[in-house]
Amino acid sequence: MKFFIDTANLDQIREANDLGVLDGVTTNPSLMAKENIRGAENIKKHYVDICNIVKGDVSAEVIATDYEGMIREGKELAALHPQIVVKVPCTKDGIKAIKYFTDNGIRTNCTLVFSVGQALLAAKAGATYVSPFIGRLDDVSTDGVELIRKIVDVYNYYEFSTQVLAASIRHTMHIIQCLEAGADVATCPLSAILGLLNHPLTDIGLQKFLDDYKKVNG
Ligand code: E4P
Predict the structure, then answer these.
(1) Residue 218's pLDDT is what?
(2) Where exactly are the structural domains of the chain?
(3) In the predicted model, is pLDDT for residue 154 greater than 90?
(4) Predicted confidence (pLDDT) per residue in 31-75, tens digit
């Protein structure tokens, strides 16, 4: 399973990348706004800065909601850097735009996916990635991880090449559950990635090794 970090914060991207296990980055307009990145040129520069930190796919989301606007923006984003994957919402115009991008060699991430039906349309349009939002489903008393499992099953059965990118991950256990459900990618906050490291027995064991070493070595 690939690991993406879900942020537009350059320090967090560097920290995750320095671990040596990072495969890519996802952003969205809310994450860009959180970093106060504003204006078309600054936004484009920020995407290029991210690409220069990480060797892997970087999702950059279109703002337009109409087909022509999505095509125009998506082409501009894709031209910024070979690592850019154009993120497109799962709407009627979005699916049409994904099909256009697929036919023209531009990779896509179909975002805001909450059902198997939406995931089917994304795959039929040739999306590189589909992003089911598991945390937001959990927020409304619906099992987000179960949706990942269902989409993985359907894609495997029908041999779709679209990769399942589990998004809206809120904590470390979500990562483990998505791994078990067969997701191709998990895009996670830095805290959830670092949480994978935590185990009290590791800390206790390491302390004992160091104490025993000191007993005989001083
Ligand atoms: C990433 O691709 C998504 O935009 C992101 O994971 C959404 O996360 P949220 O539900 O925590 O905003």
Answers:
(1) 86
(2) 2-217
(3) yes
(4) 999 999 999 999 999 999 999 999 999 999 999 999 999 999 999
165: closest CA among 91, 92, 65, 59? 59
Torsion angles phi and psi, residue 53, rounded to 5 = -90, -45
Which of 28, 34, 58, 191 has most ligand 1 atoms within 8 Å of its beta carbon, as the pocket-test mutant? 28
* ipTM of this predicted structure: 0.98
Count the Cβ atoms, other than its own, within 10 Å of residue 53: 16
- Most ligand 1 atoms within 8 A of CB, residue of 30, 58, 133, 178 to mutate: 133
CATH number of 2-217: 3.20.20.70
Does this model's pTM top 0.90? yes
**Rounded to whole angstroms, how far apart are CA atoms 33 and 49?**
16
